[in-house]
Known about the structure:
It contains 19 helices and 14 strands.
Amino acid sequence: MQSLQKLESECLTYFKSEPVWRKVLAGFLEKYASFGKFTGKVQLKNLSADEIEVLEGFFGQNFHGQKSITISAEHFAKALENSRYKEVLPDQLLKLYFGKEPVSKKEQKEKREQEKQAIEDKFFDYCQGTYAEKLVPEMLALQRLHIKDSLSEWRQLLFFSADIVNSLPYRSERTEYLPVFAAGLTKNPHAFDKGTVFGDLLYELVKLDLNHRKMKVERLPYFPSYERQKSFLSCGILLDDVSNYVLLYHVAGVQKNGSYHKGLNGFFEEEDMLQVSLTVLTNLSRLESPDQTLYIDENPSVFAARCMSYPESACMCMNGQPKLAALIALELFAASGTAVYYSGDFDPEGLWIAQRLAIFYPGTFHFLNMDETSYLKCLSEEPISDTRLKQLDRITDSRLLGTVARMRIEKMAGYQEVLTLI
């Protein structure tokens, strides 16, 4: 008498030898998932002559001329019992054929939940005694939204989340460039690039951390990149520093420990202009002007001329579109109660910059030489296209509306370099 193991091997060889059996058994495996047992009916369509011949031989039935064949679980079980493989039950055949125990969808769901719970339990243990322990509920809630088909991938993201939170540079009172932070955790400096899976994960965790510390970074529609950049900076991560700077003159800086920044003080005393990076600004608690007045120019050449003509004045240069460094500097000036006087170019883009800064600055903000009279004094021969003029529709500050109206008439740009500095 054949051993059961040998019989199972021969049975598997037979059903693997003909492709039509994959269609049949795959259909019953799907029924098993739905009902939790070997039951139901499988309909086969577009069968070849060879496939029909195989089925006829197994079921002892003539299927010729039929466009489709329906096989019931009972019919298949009976045919299997009448074959030389009668000791192999249908459930066991499914296991042999597909290499895994057939389970119902309910059982699959229960098993998945048990596996997920086991991962979460291990995650609690992994975070215990670390800073990430404080954020475990939030991290789990975040990652539950991103559970993939593969629990192993989800587990990897979950545990990696804890590593990220525990490694945020601010917790050791330091700052790091994003590529350096990424390389330290993943050995890939581009791992946290914007738009990548890990990059999106990092931003979500940064926001979770800020929320835990009850820190809210405002979303500014007129400075769309501010929220992301400031959020990362609040966790000690610099998205861009080398090109993120501001030009200052005659300005003192107070560090977070209460002492004055020696470098800034040196340039203050020497009456020299200084390019200050975002890294330096992050270590300050406030910026100070000698008379609590700050003159800001959009254009570097106007800034330089102002510094030379009025050496006692505190000055700052935006150098075009405001970067995060400029916005941080404004926040630091506001912390010392500084009043701002801003001067920019006369074109739709320049007026838009001026209005956005006026909205952003929490203290006193004045426009300097940006009225209609000043505009007419510095008219150039550079025309403003109708498309660009349309951008003036978004200028709503009453202090700029006279200039806006005149610009629509003149349709020419004006530049602050032409004006005599006041």
